[in-house]
Amino acid sequence: MESQQKIFLFAGIRKAHLGAIALGTVLLFAVGCEGTNQANRPAEQENITTEDVTEISEDDPAIGELVTIRSGVAEILDDNGFVMAAAGGESILIVNPTGTVFTPPDQDMPIQVTGTLETFTAAAIEQQYGVTLDANLYGEYDQQPVIIAENFALAPRPQDFVEIPENYFDEIVAIEGDLRPLENTQNAFALFEEGWIDDVGVLVISTDQLVDVESLEDGENIVVTGQPQPIDAATLQAANLGWNDAQIQEFIARYENRPVILAEEVYPSAVPPHPSL
């Protein structure tokens, strides 16, 4: 009988052995990520650190640009805004004019915010974006950097995502991790967290139109946004991974509680992995 290709996840493998699909840990590589396709992201958008934001002055050329940051929520002010944590104990004001209240299920959970970087002046922000800002809550942020949010996403670590996946089904998530290309697999890669104790990866599918995986390095630090889904045969078959039925069933049997991420965007991370909150 012809032997079947094995599908497994385990630590310490830099590349999958011939005839095996392995998701194993990798080392942190460079922040820059040549080869990532950012066609679905606005050309002017920058992925920056929270420290970058706190150091911006009102005449900085970044003012008015679309930016993305990832960090924890330090304080919820009201339905129109909250404060995100930054390095060194600083904070960043986020104003939410979307009309949809965003409340993270857990304030210790990192989130990702994309929006326009501005200098905060309450009267100007109220007039331009149609929000009402309580002077008692927002007064201390006058003339400081503010991000006028356009969208939000939960940003769990890969390990958190795997341990409690049910918290994220039907949500859009933004997961930062270290990339592992998969041999003998198309339209997918694995995502890992550096130093993860149990070294179990997250399978990311529907990637071919977003990024040329062959142009990336094993271990590059990237961000994937998308929707988590429970693992099942129909999802893996529809993803066109190049796996046969036996390989799909083996993968499901081995990782029956492992969710997969249906990718919507893939891009370089600008922040150190998994910031401390």
How many angstroms separate the termini?
53 Å
- Determine the number of helices (DSSP H or I, runs of at least 4 residues): 6
Average pLDDT, rounded to a whole number, is: 75
The CATH superfamily title of the largest domain: Nucleic acid-binding proteins
What does this structure look like?
The protein is 14% helix and 31% strand. Strands 3-4-8-9-7-6-5 form a 7-stranded mixed sheet. A 5-stranded mixed barrel has the order 10-11-12-14-13. It has 277 residues and is an alpha/beta fold. It is elongated, with a radius of gyration of 20 Å. The longest helix is centred in the last third of the chain and has 10 residues, at 245-254. It has 2 domains: 7-39 and 156-268, Nucleic acid-binding proteins (OB fold (Dihydrolipoamide Acetyltransferase, E2P)), CATH 2.40.50; 46-152, Beta Barrel (OB fold (Dihydrolipoamide Acetyltransferase, E2P)).
For the structure shown, list the relevant keywords.
five-stranded mixed β-barrel; OB fold (Dihydrolipoamide Acetyltransferase, E2P); alpha/beta; 2 domains; seven-stranded mixed sheet; disordered C terminus; 277 residues
In short:
With 277 residues, the protein is an alpha/beta fold. The protein contains 6 helices and 14 strands.
Give the secondary structure arrangement, pairings included.
Layout: E1 6-9, E2 20-23, E3 46-47, H1 50-54, E4 66-71, E5 73-78, E6 81-85, E7 91-95, E8 111-119, H2 122-129, H3 135-138, E9 145-154, H4 158-163, E10 173-180, E11 188-192, E12 202-205, E13 221-229, H5 233-238, H6 245-254, E14 260-268
Parallel strand pairs: 1-2, 3-4, 7-9, 12-14
Antiparallel strand pairs: 4-8, 5-6, 6-7, 8-9, 10-11, 10-13, 11-12, 13-14
